[in-house]
Design goal:
Blueprint (H helix, E strand, L loop, with lengths): L5 E5 L5 H12 L4 E5 L10 H9 L14 H6 L3 E3 L2 H10 L7 E3 H10 L2 H9 L4 H14 L22 H22 L6
Parallel strand pairs: 1-2, 1-3, 3-4
Helix pairs in contact: 1-8, 5-8, 6-7
Length: 192
């Protein structure tokens, strides 16, 4: 069975979510789409985002912003929002998505709390990649509230749109760090 597309969500769908989606897409066989809660539909990423992607060996030149819909949320096995406001918007669209929607940095933090043996046991009993993904997402959801307390800003990726190079660099670093943790955790679950 094929894994339905994962969804990455930010505000305009021109900076943070396209970069995060392309990082995951380039490292796995999973389909990953990105959307905005207030997308500037049809617009390309700004030059600083394109440059950040290029510095990571990625090409976002064909990306065009798309609006998040309830249908997208309803079919996505995992939604990674780039900030808490986006997570709230996703869950407002589809309340049952509460268990499968996280901020990117929250999911990364939770993934570091889960014993790798626990993850291996969760996915060992099924060859179906979609079911394996569902299991590791549920495992992360079960760990909400675990670990050290964090400030709300520790779950958000800073929005660089319209700001200076230093903010773009910080945003990119937050995305790369969190995405690396997410990819390490999802590992075999995303492989066909």
């Amino acid at each position: 069975m094929t894994i339905p597309p994962l969804a990455m969500v930010c505000t305009g769908n021109i900076c943070r979510s396209p970069l995060a989606a392309e990082l995951v897409r380039s490292a796995t066989s999973a389909a990953v789409e990105s959307f905005g809660t207030s997308a500037v539909v049809g617009e390309p990423p700004p030059r600083p985002t394109l440059k950040a992607a290029e510095s990571l060996g990625l090409d976002l030149s064909t990306h065009r912003a798309r609006q998040l819909t309830a249908d997208v949320v309803g079919r996505a096995p995992l939604v990674l929002a780039l900030a808490r406001e986006h997570r709230r918007a996703v869950v407002s669209l589809v309340p049952r998505a509460n268990r499968t929607t996280f901020t990117l940095r929250e999911f990364a933090r939770l993934s570091r709390l889960i014993d790798p043996h626990e993850t291996a046991r969760a996915i060992a009993s099924t060859p179906d990649p979609a079911e394996r993904l569902d299991r590791v997402v549920a495992l992360a959801a079960a760990h909400r509230g675990s670990g050290a307390l964090v400030t709300p800003d520790e779950d958000d990726v800073v929005d660089p749109f319209g700001l200076g190079a230093d903010v773009y660099a910080k945003s990119t670093a937050q995305i790369v760090d969190a995405t690396n943790d997410v990819l390490a955790y999802l590992g075999r679950a995303l492989r066909d």
